[in-house]
Structures are given as C-alpha cells and as structure tokens.
Design a protein that fits this description.
heterodimer, A: 291 residues, mainly alpha, two-stranded antiparallel ribbon, 11 helices, B: 234 residues, alpha/beta, Rossmann fold, 2 domains, six-stranded mixed β-sheet, 9 helices, 10 strands, 26% strand
Chain lengths: 291, 234
C-alpha cells in the first residue's frame, strides 16, 4: 500500500469519527454538556442494524433507517429522563449522570444480548476501484460519500431553516432565545435526536468496516470522536468535521509508518500538542464582542 | 394592560423583590427608576418569565404570566429588550431581526415590520448583513430594540437601554422610545438614567431595595425633592 491508499483509508476512518463527533459537538454547543453516553448509542445502533440484517433479513437501507429511528428515539428518551431533570444542576452532576447512562447502556446490552461478539454481515460488495495506482474499496468510497452528504445536509439545516436558526440562537444565549419565544427544551430534544440519528449512521459504517458487534463496541470510537470534536473545537460543526478527518488520517498514518501499538498514543499526543498551542481547538469559537 | 400584584422574587436565600405592585395602562410609557441593585432587572426577568416569582401575580390582559411557560409569553404580546442587549453576536443583523420574528408565520407582515424597523433604525439597514458582534454599542442597542419589535408586541419592556452609551446616543435612543410609543406600543422602561426616563414617562415608580417607595407622574417625580436628591443629582 502506498501513501495515497493510506490517505484514503484515513479519510474513511476519519469520516466515521466526524459523523460521531458531530453528535458530541452539537449537544455540547446547545446543551453545554458532554454526553458520554453518545458512544453507547452507536453500540445500540449497531445491534439494531445487526438484528435487522441477520434476523429479519432486511436490506441495508431499511436496516439503517430502522437503526436511525431507534437511536433517535433513544437519544430523545435519554435526554428527557436523565439530563432534563438536571437542567439547573452543576455540570459535574450532568457529567457523572452521562457516565452512568453509558454504563447502564453497556450493561443493559450485556444482559440482553450477552457479551459474546456477533458477526456483522457483509453488506457492501467487496469490489474496489483503482485511483492513481491505489485500489480503493467501495466501502471506503461510500463511507467518505456518506460523511460529505451528512455534513452538507447538516450545514444547510443549521443555516437555512427556522429550527437551525433557533439552534444557533440557543447555542449563543439561551435566555435571549427564550425571549425570542424559542422553546429551548424542544430545541435540546431536536439536537439529541439529530446527534443520535447520526450515531446510527456511524454505527452501520463502522460495523461494515469492522464487522463485530459487542456491548462495549461504542467506547473506543466514542472517545476518539470526542477527541476529534475537541481537536476541531468543541461546539463547532466544521470543527468536528475537520477534527474527525484529521484524526482518522493521523491514526492510519501512525499505524502505517510508526507503529500499530503506538497509533492511539500518537493520536492523543497530537491532541495534547494542538490544545497546548490553541486551547479552543482548531476551529474553536472566537467570541468577538464589542462592549 | 399589565398589572403586577404583590410580587415577591428571590435568588436562593436572598429576597430581591419584597412585594411590589404597579400597573402599566394601554398606550402609556411607565418607568421604573432606582439605583443599582434595587431589583429593577429582577422585576423585568420575572415579568418576561426568565425567573419564576415566589408569589404574586403578573396579569397581562387578564392572563397571569407567572403561570405561562416562558417561551409562550412573547406570543401574548409582551416583548423584552434585556439588560446588556444580549444580541446574537455570531449572527448577522438581519438574522437577529428574523429571530425576533421567530414566533410569527405571517411572512408578508413580518417583512413589512422589517421595513418599519429599518425606517426607525436606518443604521441597521446599512449593516443588515454584518455580524452583530461587530456593531458598536449604540448599534447593538438599536438591534436589540429592533429585534424586540419584530414580534410586533403590544407592550415593550426595555431594561437599561441607555447603559454605556454616549450622551448623544442616549438622546437618540430616548427619542426612538418615544416614537415607538407614539406608534401605539405601550412601554415599560427600567432606567438608572432617571432624568431622561422621567422626561418621557407618563407615570413612574421608584424602586428601592425591593420595594416601591414613591409613585407619580413623570412630571411630579421630576420635581419631587426626594427624587431630586437621590436620583437627579440634587
């Protein structure tokens, strides 16, 4: 494999991170909390897609849609039951609750589906195209394509719709948003719904590339995507996209050129260096307010 | 139109408003004056739903606002320009104004009202596609007022609109408040700049450490010795 192949697989892995990171960053931007249960929503999405494909024999598109529906509902329910009662509580209480929800989902999955790994069926044809001498699998192209579509759709939604405008208002100043007649609780629900729906898409792409489904499946991609969101500047949507892609590329290059064992350490080392130089992340919010 | 009855509001253990009653009649400009920390902003926040009162009633056209969800209060015709403006700095002037009209579905009338706001504040029209955070203090105040007017309110609450502005801009802002009122919007104005506020007010209340200590017409209070001594610099 050459440089180009590594770059493309990095972008593909990074695309999955970016889609997950969007969920972290949107929830942070609007609810001002770190939803550490986000990775476990991916795990639930993976199980739903697995059962839809293997047990119900659904084709890939309906299986993904089912997974999106379940995760969206799950995200809204988690917010309503676990986080909404803590709206005025300290951020530490919310953080601890999020970790609690994460364990609850992991252990719940273990009780219901056992800890043994299930093998995700092959869903995409294993063909490949050749590009500049490198051979690139369909799955890689599909993953990057889905990420670009998600990113474009989300950008349009945030910038061009009434709900998107309300979301931007809430992320800047919730009190002022209430004075505009915006139902902040509703906007937070919508944010969780979108983030969790995206987690379902990520779960299918992830399992197509790494076809094993188990209860702690979401933990590592979750923490990596969280890192990507911080890397890009938490709260920033383009930041999550950029952070995700860069993280994927760095990880693959580290694996290819340095060491497979050290790749994760290198990824986190890069994060630390970036945060030392620019604490708000690559595209972190600069607030230029005149008084 | 708006009647406050025996309102009590606390922050944690501290009672900031200790039972105040006042009213604003249709078409009036009523001002609430008082020193820093007297509870003026707390009273405003209680009316617009940002803080829940401990007890008392806030009656707007027969409906008790303290029992209405905060985001639904704007729909009842009460709009607030908050202290410190609180514009959405990252969004453009025009986006801010459209957020002011968030609750409306009548596109055509909304665009009419946008023109009215631009007539009232020509500076905003010039800067319509500029990010709000880059505006000067006076322009930000105009934007906050324009944004509040975009919901086409029947009563407008203004919290310290003159704060931090140059004397020239203060005059301009007060002239515009008067103009907004003459166009048919009732105004409740909270001000530390008592002199200017009393000049345009029909009636006024003096708030001191959570209680109303004086009330009268704007003219009466401008000539009241106690008000002169405490708020008008002797």
């Amino acid at each position: 494999m050459g440089f180009l192949s590594y770059l493309v697989s990095g972008l593909s892995l990074g695309s999955v991170y970016a889609i997950i990171a969007l969920g972290y960053t949107m929830v942070y931007g609007i609810a001002k909390m770190l939803n550490f249960a986000h990775g476990d929503v991916i795990m639930i999405g993976a199980y739903v897609a697995f059962f839809a494909l293997s047990n119900f024999g659904l084709p890939i598109i309906p299986a993904t849609l089912l997974s999106i529906v379940v995760c969206t509902l799950l995200g809204v329910i988690i917010e309503r039951l676990a986080y909404k009662p803590l709206r005025d509580a300290s951020s530490l209480s919310v953080l601890i609750t999020a970790i609690g929800v994460s364990y609850f989902l992991q252990n719940g999955a273990q009780i219901i589906w056992s800890s043994s790994t299930k093998v995700f069926p092959a869903i995409f044809q294993s063909g490949s195209v050749s590009l500049g001498g490198a051979s690139i699998s369909y799955l890689t192209l599909i993953t990057i394509g889905v990420c670009l579509i998600v990113m474009a759709a989300l950008t349009l939604f945030i910038n061009k719709t009434r709900t998107g405008a309300a979301m931007r208002a809430c992320s800047e100043d919730k009190g002022a948003a209430i004075l505009m007649g915006i139902n902040v609780n509703h906007i937070i629900s919508v944010t969780f719904a979108i983030g969790s729906g995206l987690a379902a898409i990520a779960s299918v792409l992830l399992c197509a590339a790494y076809p094993s489904v188990y209860p702690t499946l979401g933990a590592m991609p979750g923490i990596k995507a969280f890192t990507a969101a911080v890397f890009g500047g938490i709260g920033s949507i383009p930041g999550a996209f950029l952070g995700g892609l860069l993280l994927g590329v760095i990880e693959i290059f580290a694996k290819a050129y340095v060491s497979t064992q050290l790749s994760d350490a290198i990824v986190f080392a890069v994060l630390i260096v970036v945060l030392l130089i620019k604490p708000t992340g690559l595209l972190g919010k600069k607030i230029d307010e005149k008084v | 139109m708006l009647e406050i009855k025996d309102l009590h509001v606390s922050y944690g253990m501290i009672e900031a408003i200790k039972g105040i009653s006042f009213r604003v009649d249709d078409g009036e400009i009523v001002t609430l004056i008082g020193a820093n920390g007297a509870g003026k902003t707390t009273a405003m926040h209680a009316i617009s739903g940002l803080i829940r009162p401990d007890s008392g009633q806030i009656i707007l056209n027969g409906q008790d606002l303290s029992k209405v969800q905060p985001h639904k209060i704007l729909k009842l015709g009460l709009s607030q320009v908050p202290e410190g403006r609180r514009i959405f700095a990252g969004q453009t002037v025009e986006e801010n104004l459209f957020l002011g009209a968030y609750i409306r579905n009548d596109r055509e009338k909304t665009l009419n009202d946008l023109d009215t706001v631009f007539e009232l504040f020509p500076r905003l029209k010039e800067r319509r596609s500029q990010r709000a955070g880059t505006l000067s203090g006076g322009e930000q105040q105009m934007l906050a007022m324009g944004r509040a007017l975009m919901s086409n309110p029947s009563i407008l609450l203004l919290d310290e609109p003159s704060m931090g502005l140059s004397p020239l801009l203060v005059s301009e802002i007060f002239r515009i408040i008067d103009e907004i009122n003459k166009k048919g919007t009732t105004v409740l104005l909270v001000e530390q700049n008592a002199k200017r506020a009393l000049q345009i007010a029909d009636r006024a209340y003096v708030l001191e450490t959570g209680l109303i200590t004086l009330e009268g017409t704007g003219d009466e209070l401008s000539h009241d010795e106690r008000v002169k001594a405490a708020y008008l610099g002797g």
